[in-house]
What we know:
The complex is a heterodimer of chains A (185) and B (281). Chain A is mostly helical and 185 residues long. Chain A contains 6 helices and no strands. Chain A has helices at residues 2-20, 33-44, 47-64, 71-89, 98-120, 130-171. By secondary structure, chain B is α+β, with helices and mostly antiparallel strands. Chain B is extended, with a radius of gyration of 25 Å.
Amino acid sequence: xxxxxxxxxxxxxxxxxxxxxxxxxxxxxxxxxxxxxxxxxxxxxxxxxxxxxxxxxxxxxxxxxxxxxxxxxxxxxxxxxxxxxxxxxxxxxxxxxxxxxxxxxxxxxxxxxxxxxxxxxxxxxxxxxxxxxxxxxxxxxxxxxxxxxxxxxxxxxxxxxxxxxxxxxxxxxxxxxxxxxxxxx
Amino acid sequence: xxxxxxxxxxxxxxxxxxxxxxxxxxxxxxxxxxxxxxxxxxxxxxxxxxxxxxxxxxxxxxxxxxxxxxxxxxxxxxxxxxxxxxxxxxxxxxxxxxxxxxxxxxxxxxxxxxxxxxxxxxxxxxxxxxxxxxxxxxxxxxxxxxxxxxxxxxxxxxxxxxxxxxxxxxxxxxxxxxxxxxxxxxxxxxxxxxxxxxxxxxxxxxxxxxxxxxxxxxxxxxxxxxxxxxxxxxxxxxxxxxxxxxxxxxxxxxxxxxxxxxxxxxxxxxxxxxxxxxxxx
Lengths: 185, 281
């Protein structure tokens, strides 16, 4: 249930990012909404769910971006394990560390994409402009908390639905100890 | 205490075991995809899935922008109207000059037995998505292979060169913009006939391989030369804004402002021009 719901959410966020948000002037910076979901998945979802989502979103990002195929998959996979390991190591509190981790992860993710692209292309790549990158890092750090609250709400709805379903399934089982040996006589 | 230790140890072993399974799977997927330029089936399916959502959002944006323009943004309309009328007069006189040049060019082309085709089949498409990254410049359009578009076809707008189709699915296509650093277009200056290559620099172009003894100057118009076999000859590329004479090397450093305003681009035209050079693209 979680994977389909978050996959659809990722598609919506990516579409917003590519079709709706470009109306914002470039100097204001473009928020990377899909990355916020990646950070959330890295912290709150299981390894299997997180890996699947990172692979899917990495592929989706490559479809809409001009990068070489495979680069975003590598970048998001690395970020997933980095955040996961780091959040387990520091026993991360819900809200206080999240902006810092998201900002660092975004900087690392962009760096990985830039380095891999520079290695794979024989033409000159657009220069790394610290101003643009840091602006986007700031936007990610600011937006992570409200979006985290939204994603938490969606996750709770998914889990509540799953619990209700399993509750009904349990009720259909026969009660009593089915393995009690029959008494003779 | 011992139980806690054992529990954390078993948790660590479980984590390493999961990593040992997951990482090879990821590496296999990455190795299969890294460095590829063509879309595989899952990626085509992803584009087909994203396309309708992007189209829907784009139409919402256009409706909102239409309301803004028609009912709210009326401030300064009269001054803008006067300014535009003035500009129209200037453009009309330039148009006459260009017509004379076109006639001269046409007669020279006939003399050299060159074919100049203006009547190529085209497909108009709407831009439904833009690249969100910082270093790549691509757009997604709402026409694909089902409209006759093939990878490598040139894309233009009324103002001039836009880019080239790089990937597509049945109903959508991805276009590499001419301002992307990976783009290269054969070009020629209108006035001095200096040939070179236009390469993207993110927001503008650089005109490469123009010799230092050339007379190209600021304000020169740059057009496609048609030499690369992709773009037809004579499509506007941009205007020279800066000519820097570098102390070393044979070539000048020439910056060109694009003829197309990529930020405001809404519709593009794909020229259904099939060329042998596209087979290698």
